[in-house]
Every structure is written in C-alpha cells, then in structure tokens.
Task: structure prediction
Amino acid sequence: MLAYRIVEWERPPRLVEVPVPEPGPGQLLVRVAGNGLCHSDLAMSQLPGSLAEPLGWSVPFTLGHEIAGWVAATGDGISDVAEGQAVALVSPASCGSCEYCIRGQDSACPHGLVGRGYGRDGGLAGYVLVDGTRGVIPLLHLDPVVAGPLTDAGATSYHGVRRVLPRLGPGSVAVVIGAGGLGAFAIQFLRALSPATVIAVDTNEARLAYAREVGAHHAVSGVTRSTANELRDLTAGRGAEAVLDFVGIDHSISVGIRTVRPFGAFALIGSNGGTFARPWYGGLPRDADVFHFQGSSIADARDVVALAERGEIRCDVDRFTLSEVTDAYGQLDQGALRGRAVVTPDR
Result:
C-alpha cells in the first residue's frame, strides 16, 4: 500500500510503498476512509532526531493522527468490534492504567508522547494498525471520511470549551482568537452548549466569514493593540467571561489577557511561541484562571462524536487523495483551506 512517511529526520516526508500490516493478538486493522491533516504534522517533518528520539520516536513512520475508517480485520482477543464496522480512532495515545488515565485525565498521560502518526505508523495510508479498542469510537451515522478531524481538532477545542463552560451563563461573552480549524469547532461548541455571545477574532477575512457561518455573533478583524479595545466595546466595557486563544503569539496572548474580566478564564491552546512579559500584579485579570493544555481525552472525543452524530455540530472538509497530500499540506500551511483537510487513500 502507499503511505506518506517521515523516512529521515529533517527531510520532507514522501510517499512510499509499504506492506499492509496484519493484526496480532489484541489488535485490529482499520481500512482508512479519511485522515485529517494537522499543523503539528508540518512541525514533525522538521524535527531533528536529537529532539524526536528522546520522545521514543524512530524513523521511518507514517504520518496522520486524525483517523476514521472501517474495521478490516481483528486479531485474537478482540470481540467488541466487528469487521466492516465504521469507527473513529481517538487521536492522543494513553496507557489506560496511570493515575491520570484512571481519573479520566488521559490527556496528561506520561506515556502519551508516542502514538499513531507521531512516532508510530499513522493514517496517511490505506490501512492502520490499532492496539486494542480503548480508543476506538463506533460511528452510527457519520461518514468516516469526514469523522477523523473530530478526534483531534474537534476534541482539543472541546477540551478547552468544557473547562470554561461553568462561567458561561446568560449574558456572558466568550471570545475565540483564531477562527481556523480548531477555533471554528470551538465556536460551534460554545453555541451548542452555552448561552454565551460568541466573538471570533482572526486576521483572515475568509475565516471570519466562516466563523459567522458556524455561529459567531460578532467577528473582529486583526490581532493588534486596538483589538482589545474593540472587544471591550463589544462587551460594553465588561470584558469576556472566557477567552480561548488558538493562535498563541505575543499579540494574541496580550489581547486575550486584557479582554478577560475578573473571575473569568483565559485558555492558551495555540503553540506559536508567544510570551507574556507584563508583571502578574498589573497584567493578569483579578481572580481569573489562566491555563494551558495540549490534546484531549477519550471522553472528549466521544462527546464530540456524539454531538456530530446528533447534528449539533458539523465538520466541513476539503478532500484530497493521498497522491495529492503534498499539495494539501501546502494549502494548510498557507491558510487557504475553508474546512479541515482530509486525505483519502488512492483506491
């Protein structure tokens, strides 16, 4: 089968022929329907071995961690999924037995640094091998071609929204900075799960138009010094109960922190190297929570799939075939996509 793999560190990934894997005891083989692309894939392809190998990664491996498809074969000991069943695969890896996993906080699992598409073979291929069924989510009505992004982009956004929901009562305001793939999901979750007024902020007018389409009440263009003032005006000077920053640069962090009202919450999800240099006693909102995270939990992914199954959120995708994967990553990097890029295997 054809697979898109990192073959050498600090070299571009490439399409190569590899054997179709066979499931052993406790494993299942999934025929890939679609694999969503992620900005983290681009970062992985540029990693030096000196940084990647201490994580437990080794080349070669197949990229792709937003995966859905159909069960093609099962090994001994697998009885709770059937061949032909449509499934989505939880994106982050976790062990299931550490103190975090036992509490349902598997996003913090210390064994989650190696997983499908990051250190192990992922879904940019015809088939992918899965260990056990703990991270397998059956699909009822959803098309598996478009379900993969729900397990990472969707679940990560949901993880942040879930943390701030207790603050979002009637009359509240939530601000989403960065209305791309993750931010667009966050807007939908906020509309589906809270009565908050939702404000989207982005520098890309096409993304702002899409943000309005999926439910944002207001759209603010640009992330500059004046953006915080504009957001304050939209909230009648009160500020927002919650700000979710999916960008993570100096300006977005500064704008977000200045926009949060006392007893609100600021969530930093974007990882673009931003800093916050102002002193805590003059720069942070009083009695507010400021938190950062990466990834999501199995429970997050299951909740997101359930919302999509009920039609409460949507997952718009731009489709590419595996032979077009390089072009797909190029459009992702340039911000030229309307939805989430999904790559389907060449059949």
Summary: The mean pLDDT is 93.
